[in-house]
Amino acid sequence: MKPNDVILQSVTKVAVVIIFTFSIYLFMNGHHNPGGGFIGGLSTAAAVVLLYLAFDIEKVRENIRIDFKKLAALGVLIAVCTGLGGVLFGEEFLTQAFGYKELPIFGKTELTSALIFDTGVALAVIGTAVNIILSISEDR
Amino acid sequence: MHSFYIILFLPFLFAFIVPFLFKYINKRIHTGWFVLFVPLTIFLFLLQYIPIVAKGETIEYNLPWIPSLNINISTYIDGLGLLFGLLISGVGTLVILYSIYYLSKIREELHKFYIYLLMFMGAMLGLVFSDHIFILYGFWELTSISSFLLIGYWYERKSSRYGALKSLLITVFGGLAMLAGFIMLILMADTYSIREMIGNAAFITNHDLFIPALILILIGAFTKSAQFPFSIWLPDAMEAPTPVSAYLHSATMVKAGIYLVARLTPIFGGSSIWFWLVAGIGIITLLYGSFTAVRQTDLKALLAFSTISQLGLIMSLLGIGSLAVYFGPGESGALYTVATFAALFHLFNHSTFKGSLFMVVGIVDHETGTRDIRRLGGLMHVMPVTFTIAVVGGFSMAGLPPFNGFLSKEMFFASVNDVASAGIFGLEKLGMLFPIIAWIASVFTFVYCMILIFKTFTGKFRPEKLTKKVHEAPIGMLVSPLILGTIVVLVFFLPNVLGEYILIPALIPVLPMIPIHRDDLYITAWHGLNPELWMTIGVVVFGILLYKIVKGWIKLFNHYPQWLTLNHFYNRGLAGTEQFSKNITNTYMTGSFRHYLKYIFVFFVLVLMISFLFLYGFQFNFSNHAPIGIFDMAVVIGVVAAAFVVLFTSHRITAIVALGAVGYFISLFFVLFQAPDLGLTQFVVETVTTVLFLLCFYHLPKLRKNIGKISLKLSNLIISLAMGATVTILALAAFGHKVFEPITYFFENAYELAGAKNIVNAILVDFRGFDTMLEISVLTIAGLGVYILIRQSSKRREQSNETE
Amino acid sequence: MEIVIAIVIGILVTIGTYLLLSRQLLRIVFGSSLISHAVNLLIITSGGLKKGNAPLLGEGKIGFTDALPQALILTAIVINFAVTAFVLVLSYRSFKANGTDDMEKLRGNEHE
């Protein structure tokens, strides 16, 4: 890599944290506000891509030891399994459930199976997007 | 589900076990021994119906399959079905027993063989017992397919493949014609059930579609039963292993057409066109088959043509019997009932003697290594048992006593004599042709039977022409033909047991309107010195005469021009159609991506525009449109400008950035249109996509100025403009019309139903979760696709580097 | 507004079609990308423009724009991303393998 990437790298270090936080916010809030699995996943992927652009691929790979292909597959698996969860309770495939629970810190919180499904979606999106970009950039 | 269905589907069910049997047990025990139980069980199971059906009762079972389409596997056991069912399972048992000794367990791929055979057996059984006409059709085509597989069993041989393909093409062609005929029948009778169709026969007879349906269905039956001129597939089908020939071409597959004609006689019989087609084609086939069989030198080919000829005989008898429908109950009707009875009787007899003859030929082939008559001879002393069976089968086929063929042949002569004096359908003038043709054909039948027996088994034994040391076949191989031969003799002496319990019950469904006179249907070997007997005596005298001088006149066949044969027409026709479709395909499948896209676009424009014209789609309603703000206009201009930059620029980077700009403007549109989720998603996706383009452009060459002919560019431009205009009109028309109420109000209950306040998200993860699940699957697959594309090629590169 | 959007859709489709018909692989990818933008616009506009608030129940408003097209488009955008990526990689792979990105030279011949 060229030596004059210092500015980009310093900015990236800060930006990535912000983007990650923001994407988690987008993802968690997706049920009630704009956001959700797709957007959360894509913005996370964008952050990872930014990391790859700013730093060496090898360096990032050393620090993020995730096989993104498997991550995508895991996402699909989670989504399918939530679908099967409904079947276990005698409902149609992919019936989602939700309820409210008092949790220690958060107070009254909504718990939904849709969130798990959305997690699957987000993982699939992250996995695929990063996998595509990585594959291409590795092709020399 | 009644146990009958288990029996009916037993062949299919058992086929699943066959591969495992072959893999694990075949080394010790021949797979055939296990398969043998299937037809045997079916046969024994079916035996229990004989007393019930002989009393004139019928049994029906019903199994829902696709209730919404009114398709049920409705089955119906009556005499006709039972006769066929017993033949299929009975001969099936013997054939499998025979095949155990015929096919080597070491060399052959037995699992395939037995799976095909079981598939065929199951299809035949389903065919003869179904009442639902589409189920019957399905089984009909399944017999074609499985016989294709069986004929092509030795697929390494070119001739096997040729024969298999030929039989498939011809029988499936006939099957499709038959399907069209069936659909017409359904339209006419307003039912899917064959029995109800027969009940509604009165409506059908006067319907406009009567004759087309009749002809189409007969094409199906004639192709299957190898009637002239569709008979050409049968000789080539002899490439199949001999057990298959013995099964398919003596007792089962070729009899399917006979079954169909018999089954539908109550509907179509009684019309002159049915009579002339069935009886006329049948008798022509009889003559053609016997005439051609005489000149064959291959024993199996001889049997093939004799099968064609015998099928013609049965077919013509069915045709003559259909006159009974015309005459109705009464003396004349009863007279022609005998013809149908004779058809069923001969059908049974043919299965027995032809089955045994095929097996005999198989034995000769197996033990001597050849089926060529010119190399065989004098086997009588080497293979006495085989010779005896051959004599029994051959004399029965020639119509000699004391074998069952004599009885049915006499009845055949009686029937053709009766038809000469029928006096309807133009038979006053042409009626005499029937006995004449029948007699001539019988003479030739006699000759080829004698050739089959005596050229093979008498004369001089010439071991030097044979590749193997000849000896009698193993006992296991002789059991099946021996059983069949015994039946041939037994039936001659006790024909009325068969008649009473099997044939008369089978006759009732063919001619339900005629009351049965058992006295007319009493079979006797001796009925005085009547014309039939004289005809038989004539056949024998002339037959012996012709056989003695056969060397002299058989050379005449060589003068027949080759290009006039049916096979020649088939081959030329096939090559011609292939060339024709190839030429047509080559005119539009140019290999050019642009051409294919053009077809799609032009089709799109034409279809939409034409349907707009005809459905009065050009109605726009601008009343409810939203106002335009300044900000909206700015975005619109931005999008259009960026799009034009993509079109005109010749710099890759500019194009990519402009494309990204289009995407960002679109995301602004989404924000303006109150779609925050979309705006966000589009924004992020566009970013990632732009990165993607920037990564890839490294690998792609520079954009070139669009070179090419002006006319080409112009046509591209015209198509593009037409596409744009069409989509604009479509959009305008769509915006103005609301045919249905939007269903979005349902989703506005998202909070109550899904606990979500973001409706879009609720739709994605809850209401339409299935779509989303599949979508991420597609996404993942695309990602894996990209990975594999790159990984594969870089691997290949590494490998090529290593080799260098 | 609808008329303007319809015209924008028409322009995008025209340009997209023209690019698809061109000879260079990269242009073809651009074309398909433009057409998918046009289709997204078409779908969202057929749901009605500016007919209510954003489909979020949490803000205490009533009267929302049609949420269904939005959900459809959201799916379409993400799928489109995957397809674009795939086509891009396919095209540069084919360029590397065949040494040309000219569609007229990339004709499949039957006797290859």
UniProtKB/TrEMBL annotation, chain A:
Q: What is its main location?
A: membrane
The annotated topology with respect to the bilayer is:
Multi-pass membrane protein
**Which compartment or compartments is the protein found in?**
Cell membrane
Presence of the UniProt keyword Cell membrane in the record: yes
One Pfam family this sequence matches:
MnhB
Origin superkingdom:
Bacteria
UniProt keyword annotations, A-Z: Cell membrane, Membrane, Transmembrane, Transmembrane helix
What InterPro entries is this protein classified in? CPA3_antiporter_subunitB, MnhB
Domain Na+/H+ antiporter MnhB subunit-related protein: residue ranges? 7-130
Q: Where are the transmembrane segments?
A: 7-28, 34-55, 71-91, 111-134
Which family is annotated? Answer: Belongs to the CPA3 antiporters (TC 2.A.63) subunit B family.
Recorded hits in NCBIfam families, A to Z, give: PRK12573.1
Q: What is this protein called?
A: Na(+)/H(+) antiporter subunit B
Question: From what organism does this protein derive?
Answer: Pallidibacillus thermolactis
Automatic annotation (TrEMBL), chain C:
Name of one Pfam family that matches:
Oxidored_q2
Keywords in alphabetical order: Cell membrane, Membrane, Transmembrane, Transmembrane helix
- Taking the first listed entry, what is the main subcellular location of this protein, grouped into a coarse class? membrane
Q: How does it sit in the membrane?
A: Multi-pass membrane protein
**Record-annotated membrane-spanning stretches:** 6-21, 28-47, 67-90
| InterPro entries for the chain | CPA3_antiporter_subunitC, NUOK/Mnh_C1-like
Location in or out of the cell: Cell membrane
Protein family according to the UniProt entry? Belongs to the CPA3 antiporters (TC 2.A.63) subunit C family.
* Stated name of the protein: Na(+)/H(+) antiporter subunit C
Q: What is the lineage of its organism?
A: Bacteria, Bacillati, Bacillota, Bacilli, Bacillales
